[in-house]
Amino acid sequence: MTYSTRTLLVFLATSALYLQSAAASVLPFSSVEEPLAEQRYRFIDRFAADEQNQVSRQDFLNAWQQRFTALSDFAAGKISEEVFVAFEMTELEQQLLNAREAHIRQTLNRFNALDRDNDGNISWEEYQASGQRIFDRFDTNQNGVVAVGDPDPAPRRRAQSNTQTDNERRRVRSLLAMPTTHNNQGFLTMFATDDKQQVSWQDFEQQRRSVYDRTDVNGDGLVSRGEYLDEFMSRVARREQEVRQTHKELAQHVFRQMDQAQQGWLSKKDFVAYGLAVFQLWDTTNEQQISEAQPLPEQEPQLQLAVRQP
């Protein structure tokens, strides 16, 4: 399988490599897709020294070499592909746990918002009223249909503290990001069926009713807190499996990229050369530092070529 630089840069953004623990992952790419600007933001946020808004080549290199030391300790000998992948998958599980816990908190908050009478259940009327509010928000021209080309609804305003920094206000995609209805495209992706380019209120309500009935496992006509949580977390579990598979495949690919001599194990020289090649992909102006003021990468050459010509 061939991965373009853009695909591999995606692998850079949310890898545990950027966690501050000494035992963090060494993968330079993320297993989830997100805009390049967000990936670079993650890179700067994790590697910037003393809360600066840029990452120097030396700061990156110091952190990258620390990751090699952590990986070497984990391997207790030569770093084979099997050991490398095992190290990555071990670190991934902690990230998945954190993302899963965040989903549980958010799901319970959504339940509480839907349970308007606070009786510990969501009735069909409460669920339907929520659906009506969602549909009305996206039906921006008020014709009873949400279609491709309709204007996006006005963004919801979030309260912000005067003490928040720009980094604290910024939102980045979760490792277990689920489909959302933040814009017209997201709404149609979730609810348009049979390749339709639009969703009527009737179609929307029918799908919502199907979800409600499926979630009401005991068939009592109400969705309890446990039923609501179980339904959503079952979808999160399926997403976890997808992330694990992608992460494993990319870990294998990165190892083979690093192992330039094809000897079946990693040397520090190969490891450092690969890290510097990754840094160079972000340093689009060759300033020996990375900041959000720089242009994003525009082309998608194979990263392996960049490694061979650091």
TrEMBL record:
Occurrences of domain EF-hand (ranges): 102-137
Listed PROSITE patterns: EF_HAND_1, EF_HAND_2
Protein's UniProt keywords contain Metal-binding: no
Source lineage: Bacteria, Pseudomonadati, Pseudomonadota, Gammaproteobacteria, Alkalimonas
One Pfam match: EF-hand_5
Gene3D superfamilies: EF-hand (1.10.238.10)
Leader sequence segment: 1-24
Keywords: Signal
Annotated protein name in UniProt: EF-hand domain-containing protein
Flavoprotein in keyword set: no
